[in-house]
Amino acid sequence: MLSFRAPVWWSTAVRRLLVVPVTLLVAAGATGAAPAAAPDAGAATPDRLRYDVSLRGDADGSHWAGHQRVSFRNASDRPLREVYIRLWGNGDDKCGTPGKPSPVKVSDIHGGTAGRLSVNCTALRITLPKPLAHGERTALSFDVSVAVPQRNARFGREGTFRFLGNALPVLAVHDAKGWHLDPYVSTGESFYALASDFRVRIDHPSALKVPATGRTWTTRGEPGRTVTHSIAHQVRDFAWAAGPFRTATDTSPGGVRVKSYWAPNTPAAGVRINRKDGVAAVDRFSKEFGQYPYGEIDFVMTKDFGGGMEYPGLVILGTTAEGSAVTHEVAHQWWYGIVGNDEYGAPWLDESFAQYANYRFYGVNTRDCWSDVGWPNQSSALTNSMAYWSTHPGEYHLIYTAGPCALADLERTVGAEPMARLLKRYAHDHWYGVSTTADFKKAAQSVTDKDLTAFWKQHRIR
To answer: Nearest Cα to 176, choosing from 45, 371, 312, 86?
Structure first.
């Protein structure tokens, strides 16, 4: 969801839409992997990635250093001659300055030859020693260092608490459109990644609690230190946090472990609401979209974080006494996490779908919640990319308002039961894969005899 320091108008207006229902509905809920497609030149690659990471943090979790290895396969039927490492943590600071360098660095690269950093120091080209044929595997390894920036953001800090979202380097995706080397945006997300396996070892002072993506456990480290271990299968990213959190663990009736971490000054009422609604949402969405597959989800809550931010198995939540956007962020575990999409190219596919799920969870009345008169100009469309929204930030709320309203209108158009079947089947068919607007339009048309051409035009789903 909100991956930026939200301005006042956003916090007061949109957060209420995301958290406490105003006057703006419900369905039912199989998992499984989609059948493998035949290889082709445009296949998303490199795939079947496995990241093995070992990191050591300093006294307060502000600096981390260690080693990372990533192995991968070429899924395309064309030889893979290069790959790109995305250093998304450099997005806000770009290439830095002599006195303030970029916060994420990689060095001592093995398995390929590094080129120059590009795209404002968020992309590093690695030329492979020899072309990688279809179906072949190889690996890269490198040292990595991470310095947490002095800002309250998904990669940043709040008081004694550190957030490390998008801090770990990951491989870029190549598909029919070529290499996806889009620029970083702070309003929204730029990220496009394939489902990957992570095995991560985080060595940290024992005074710090470290929530992280994946199933986690701790072991004793050196004197005064603890090692948090995580194993995460089929996730698109890995995030962690660090700080003197208070903690609690719940288990949903469906068997998902929900671990809550919060700063001591976080409103207690909001923490209680998040724990209650978050546990309920995991099971609710499991029934509607397919069983949550990761076994564990962590809620990281602080008082002043702007909005919320989703990662596989971990969400960061700015929490007031009224709670937070917890159900929206939990919904993102399916819409972006399990059912992937290019978040830069088609952000509505995760944000609007997560907000539609949020509306349904709270029983929000969505009838007549949107009309054509709200579109600001002819070029504005629900399916615009972040290239548009980042240059029209005043319109970005449409993803969270017009988007879920369009999906609610689709439900009324095709019927509640067909819509429920559509979403569950659509999630099943794209489980751990990548969805597109064209995929969704085709799936929606398949559940109704009505021609949806006019519907797509009305809601500017292009």
So the answer is: 45
Q: Are residues 228 and 354 in the same domain?
A: no
- Average pLDDT on 14-24 reads 39
Quote the longest CA-to-CA distance of the chain. 68
- 96 occurs within a structural domain: yes
Q: What pLDDT was estimated at residue 372? A: 59
Tally of structural domains, the chain: 2
Same-domain status, 425 and 352: yes
Mean pLDDT of 255-271: 98
In angstroms, rounded to a whole number, what is the distance separating the alpha carbons of residues 46 and 56?
28
* 20 plus 88 within the same structural domain: no
CA distance 87 to 106: 9
Is 110 labeled as ligand-binding? Answer: no
Residue located via tokens 């806000």: 92
CA angle 383–311–117, rounded 5-degree value: 80
What the block records as the tokens of 455 is: 């519907």
User: Phi then psi for 7, rounded to 5 degrees?
Assistant: -70, 170
Q: Is 332 annotated as a binding residue?
A: yes
Q: Is 180 a known ligand-binding residue?
A: no
Residue of 337, 340, 318 lying closest to 12 (CA atoms): 318
Is residue 428 within 8 Å of residue 290, measured between CB atoms? yes
Q: Say what the pTM is.
A: 0.92
pLDDT in tens, 55-107: 999 999 999 999 999 999 999 999 999 999 999 999 999 999 988 999 999 99
Q: Do 113 and 196 sit in the same domain of this protein?
A: yes
Exposure on the CB side of residue 419, measured as CA atoms within 13 A: 18
CATH number of the domain where residue 436 is located: 1.10.390
Q: Single out the residue in 221, 240, 259 at which a domain terminates.
A: 240
| 64 and 104 fall within a common domain | yes
C-beta contacts of 424-427 below 8 A and 24+ residues apart:
424/29, 424/30, 424/288, 424/289, 424/290, 426/339, 427/31, 427/289, 427/290, 427/334, 427/338, 427/339
pLDDT higher than 90, residue 42:
no
Residues 33 and 178 in one domain: no
Q: Each residue of 367-419: pLDDT tens digit?
A: 878 765 578 999 999 999 999 999 999 999 999 999 999 999 999 999 999 99
By residue range, what is the domain housing residue 363?
A: 16-37+338-458
Average pLDDT, the chain: 92
Domain CATH code at residue 174: 2.60.40.1730
pLDDT given at position 172: 98
